Amino acid sequence: MEAQTEQVGLSRAERKAREKAKLIQKETQRNNFKLVAGILKKAECEQTEEERVLLQRHQDTVQELSKRQARRNTLKRKQEELYDGEEDLRTKVKQLAEAMRQARHVVVYTGAGISTAASIPDYRGPNGVWTQLQKGRAVRHSDLSEADPTLTHMCIQMLHKVKMVQHVVSQNCDGLHLRSGLPRHALSELHGNMFIEMCVSCSPVREVIRLFDVTERTALHRHATGRRCPQCRGELRDTIVHFGERGTLEQPLNWKGAAEAAEQADLILCLGSSLKVLKKYACLWCMKKTAAKRPKLYIVNLQWTPKDDSATLKIHGKCDDVMQLLMEELGVEIPSYNRSDDPIFSLAIPLRQDEEDGHSRKTLMPLADLEHPETDSANQAEETEVQGGWFGRGYSKAKKKRKSLW
Ligand SMILES: [Zn+2]
Asked: What are the residue boundaries of the Deacetylase sirtuin-type domain, all occurrences included (predicted)?
């Protein structure tokens, strides 16, 4: 506004002269940056006297360049995966086990890192969807409904059973917590569950659980799955909360359960989450309480998280490795996952006959059927490129970003 008023009284020639001066200034600045950056690349002993004088003269540019370099270094450091040494890991897990024994109310927050062992890629790890796309590589993965609960999922389920964990809040849509046998009331799937479709025309809202990824045709602001409610014939929708959406479904998101759990928690254990999204949900971090009254925070993640500074302990290890050691320390047995105990098979509602051909996602098979896999179709379903559906959230964003670089 000020610049505009300033220009009002000027003649056309004067305005042009000013613009030209600005352009020249920019060009000079750019050249200075190039020049200084070139000199700074050299080792100090290799710089000539003339170059040293130049650096002295362009102190501002030198400072700006070193600030930029520092920012780049920080970013790089935050993306690096770190591993604690074997002994260090044991000591840290001992500390965590002791804290869990002392705690009254433990809440576990989980992210993509707990499912990578089940071949579901995460977003920000070195092989994550975003990282790969930013490097210009295609993202391929085997069918997501092939995955079974990991050792970490089974440990969490068991810790809940023996009352050492009171609630689980997950960002994952892969449904693996539910399939591990963790009861619904102890779980908040904040971003939805790929096996659940809903009828919001029914009252109360009707949940329909399927044995396949129901999100094949859904996307941001487009949630209809293409199937109809078995009761009222209303349109069924998925439960996925995409970037930029606010999840309103009571279940499976269970925000009420998550907020109550955080309120009561005296220990929060974060497993395999970058916490970049979770940190934005203020109610999960008891930010209204004074820092001293907030629950103690234990973070297991290979990469940096924005909550590292407020954590009591940060463990750099793979979730399965840490959980295995933790269960050993706590003296709690790790149950193995068994498809015949997977609750999804008794909860699922079969498709009507005319709907059976309406999706192309792989259907989960109970163990008995797995022993006789239909070889042809099974092999074809493997290694498909990431497309829409719940796994596509964030994908389109990264794709657009990449395009704009070219
Ligand atoms: Zn209905």
From this structure: 86-333
